[in-house]
Structure formats: C-alpha cells, structure tokens
Amino acid sequence: MSAVLTLLALPLLPTGQASAASYSVTMKGYAFSPASLSVPAGSTVTWTNQDTAPHDVKTTSGPVSIHSPMLDKGQSWSFTFTTAGSYGYVCTVHPNMTAGITVRAAAPATTAAPTAHEHHTGSSSGHRAPAPSRTTPSSRPPATRMPSSSPSSAASTASPAAAGQSPQASPSSPAAQVAQQQTQTTASAARPLDPLLVLTGIVAGVAVLCLLLVGSRASAPQAPRTPREEEA
C-alpha cells in the first residue's frame, strides 16, 4: 500500500525536486572518475577518495567557489550545486587531477491555465451580440450643418492679419527715443525768434558801430589850420 502511495505522490512533486539527484565521483588512480559530469541544479555530488594519497576538491572556475577538506582514503565529501554554470576543479595536492561539472538550470514548473472562451454563440451563452442596425427607408439622413462663425474663429482669422502687419516701434525702444529727440530739435528750430531778443541784438550792434566810428575819428590825423583859423 505504501509503494502505491509513493508512486501516486511522485507526479505531485515540484519539477526542481523531481530533477534533483545524487551523483558520485571517485578519486582513484590519481584521477577523478568521471572527469566530466552534467547534473541539474539542486543535485548533490559526493567525492570519495579510494587512493592511499590524500586528495581534495577546489574549483578553478565557475560561478561559485568551493573547496573541500583534505580527504584520506575512504573519506567522502558532498556539495549541492544550486547555481547553474560550468565548474572546473582540481586536486591541490596533485594538479594533474582535473575534472569539470556542468550544472543545468532547473526547468520552471508549468501550470496549465484555463483557456478563456472569448467568442460565445447566441445559443450557448446568455449574452448575445447586438444585431447590426439597418437603415429603414423611412429613416432620413441627418441634416448637414454648416459651420457657424464663432468669435473664436473670427479671432483666429484676425490674428494672422494682425500678425502680417509690420510691427511698430514701441515708445520705449531706442529708435523711438532718437526719433522723438530729432522731432523736438526740428520743432525748436522752427519756432519764431523772440522780438525782445531781436531788439537787444539791434541795440548792441548800433552801440558797437558807434564805438567803432568814435575810435576811428580819434585816431585819424588832424589837418593843419589856416592863418585865418589861428587868428580866429
């Protein structure tokens, strides 16, 4: 009865546990036997020394580094490989003793997912696909509406026209300030002269002219007087 239960329980084991096993490597004649081994992840490898000389196991390559203690004749040492990859190892006492182990990744457990039925016929399910609507002769096509001009459309139409106009210089720009100064200079030049200033200029000119005449007369040589002028 127990054997039957064991056989029935084997298919229920996870894939990793079912693939895990134990393997043996013999150290005999100063060599590892077998020299090449391929095991699934989770497997345990046991090394047994059958030589009179001591041996050990030390990895030279691989994703995980392992090193066993020194094994005398009849002694064994085991290691469980959980990381997949290729391992190379050697006996440190006898470097000519080399071997390798390839650890395969465990296959993931597959679970059968229930298939979803996307298409249902009207007779097998309560939900039926709506029948396509048909246009009856009495139905009229919807009236076509003309797009009405809205303020937003008018604004969008006016914006390109406004954008097409040449930009005017703002009062704060340097060009506008220079033009304003030139206009002020021209306006001040076009103003009529003040009459008081004109009169002052004429009086000053007359006074200067008189001074020049007086000075010229004083510096001119006087003519000699006649005897009549002296008698008088």
TrEMBL record:
MF terms from GO for this chain are:
copper ion binding; electron transfer activity
Q: Where are the transmembrane segments?
A: 196-215
Matches recorded under SUPFAM superfamilies: Cupredoxins
Per UniProt, residues of the Blue (type 1) copper domain are 25-103
- Principal localisation: periplasm
Example GO CC term: the record gives: periplasmic space
Where does the record place Low complexity bias?
A: 128-188
How cofactor binds (record note)? Binds 1 copper ion per subunit.
Q: Keywords on this record?
A: Copper, Electron transport, Membrane, Metal-binding, Periplasm, Signal, Transmembrane, Transmembrane helix, Transport
As cofactor, the record names: Cu cation
Region called Disordered, residue ranges: 109-188
List residues binding Cu cation.
Answer: H55, C91, H94
Location comes to: Periplasm
Signal sequence coordinates: 1-20
PANTHER family per the UniProt record, alphabetical: BLL1555 PROTEIN
Which named protein is this?
A: Amicyanin
